[in-house]
Amino acid sequence: MPPRAGQPRAMLCSIPGVAFVPALLVTWSSAAFIISYVIAVLEGHVEPLVPYISDTGTKPPESGIFGFMINISALLGVITMYIRYLIIKKQNESSHFIRSSCNMFSLCIGLMGCTGMGIVATFQELSVPSVHDIGALVAFGSGVVYITLQSIISYKSCPQWNTYFVCHIRMAISVISCIAFIPMIVFASKISMTKIDWTPGEKRVSLRISTEIHEDS
Question: Among positive and negative, which fits the CA dihedral 3, 8, 10, 14?
């Protein structure tokens, strides 16, 4: 009997190893940030105290590593979000806990965030600052909206597809992300984003540190 139209994509969620894609995304992205940070500090390009993520990938040799690894992280993010979309779509066929348009909207927001990551990785902070900043804003903003939407969808799918404990954890992460995102934008708008060499006594250095802490959060 020939497979139905939606069967191949539905089977994607059951392929062995698919569950490791989100773990690979987190591991690879963390490695990208850590490796770039270590090299940037050892080369004396940034201060060890909570630098901007972008600052650790601005100058060579760490800039090449940062761009390469973050672009792969963006690709892994796309794959992870698409798998999540298919899982929710399959669950919704039997439970009807959300509108299909909501699931699609969440996927589109997530893909926007991954596109922003790709822009950040490709256009360096000091080379094309305006494009880099737009990419960072899209990446962080879309990321916050995406995880918030996913938290809401998780609550909608309770108790059949999720436990309330998991939903509470997801919502807590969403709240923390929102709290960190807003001050980051406010503080960043008051300082130069194209300057990475700061001294402790320099004017507005406290705003710079505050912005870095909220970004790294």
Answer: positive
- DSSP assignment of 72-121 equals HHHHHHHHHHHHHHHHHHHHHHHH--S-HHHHHHHHHHHHHHHHHHHHHH
d(CA 80, CA 18): 9
Structure tokens at 68: 């390469």
Q: What is the DSSP letter of 4?
A: P
Distance CA 159, CA 111 (A): 28
Say which residue the tokens 């020939």 belong to: 2
| Distance, CA of 64 to chain centre | 20
Confirm if 83 and 89 have CB atoms less than 8 A apart: no
Distance CA(147)–CA(177), nearest Å, equals: 9
User: How far is CA 186 from each of CA 107, 156, 182, 198, rounded to the nearest angstrom?
Assistant: 27, 33, 6, 19
**Each residue's pLDDT tens digit, 129-148:** 889 889 999 999 999 999 99
Q: How far is CA 47 from the centre of its chain?
A: 24
- Kindly report the pTM of this predicted structure: 0.82
- 121, 70 in Cβ contact below 8 A? yes
Residue carrying the six token digits 């807003």: 182
Coil, strand or helix: which one is 69?
Answer: helix
Output the pLDDT for position 102: 97
